[in-house]
Amino acid sequence: MELIGSVLGELFTPQGGWSLRLITRVVLSTLILLGYVIVLARLYGSRTFASFTSYDFLVNVAAGSLVASAILGRSLIEPGLSLLVLVTAQWAISAASARSRRMQRTFDNAPVVLIENGHVLPDALRRSRVARASLDQALRSSGLTGPEQAKFAVLESGGTISVVPGQS
Fold first, then answer.
1. Sheet containing 161-165: which strands, arranged edge to edge?
2. Do the beta carbons of residue 97 and residue 107 sit within 8 Å?
3. Residue range 25-53: mean pLDDT, rounded
4. Measured between alpha carbons, how far is 140 from 146 in angstroms, rounded to an integer?
5. By CB distance 3.0 to 4.6 Å, which of 7, 103, 136, 168 could disulfide with 96?
6. At 119, is the secondary structure helix, strand, or coil?
7. What is the residue extent of each domain of the chain?
8. 3-state secondary structure of 9
């Protein structure tokens, strides 16, 4: 029991111990980075931290890691500059993808039809690695009880499943 208490004490004690300086640094860096992220989102647009595509999701994960590094690190400059470069690259790629079909195919996943006219397409489910339970959940979320009630179900590029109800 003493060992567990000792390990827990280490887990909840920062390197160098607790100090007013440490708490002040963490609070200030968090607030500064929050402001910085808000400014970047306003400058680069609402897509900056949205997850429309799997690429956007990866950018968000990397951005979160950079923000955490900046909050917990010794300096805000390197992670802050990296975040600026990442957001600028994401902006450039999304702008190019909006203008070029070739760029869109390079960076965005194409939508995949999972249900067509009430029929589940098992090959599409398998290729896109979507479990039948996930498809059934999307149907229920759309107020449908089964695939026969759907005209289409589409796995969108961002990973969500859109359902178009059939004619009632």
1. 119-120, 112-116, 150-155, 161-165
2. yes
3. 85
4. 8
5. 103
6. strand
7. 17-105, 112-165
8. helix
B/e letters for 135-168, b = 16+ CB within 10 Å, e = fewer, are: beebbeeeebeebebbebbbbebbeebebeeeee
Measured CA to CA, the distance from residue 121 to residue 126 in angstroms comes to 9
Contacts of 40 (CB under 8 A, 6+ apart): 48, 83, 84, 87
Mean pLDDT over 42-46 rounds to 82
Q: What is the DSSP letter of 161?
A: E
Cα distance between residue 4 and residue 89, in whole Å: 46
Cα–Cα distances (Å) from 35 to 16, 29, 58, in that order, read 28, 10, 22
pLDDT attached to residue 118: 95
- Collapsed DSSP state (helix, strand, coil) of residue 29: helix
Which residues make Cβ contacts (< 8 Å) with residue 72, sequence separation at least 6? 26
Q: What percent of the chain has pLDDT over 90?
A: 50
pLDDT score at 100: 92
The pLDDT score that the predictor gives to residue 130 is: 93
The pTM is what?
Answer: 0.67
User: How many CA atoms lie less than 13 Å away from 156 in the CB half-sphere?
Assistant: 10
pLDDT tens-digit map of 141-158: 999 999 999 999 999 887
CATH number for the region 112-165 comes to 3.30.240.20
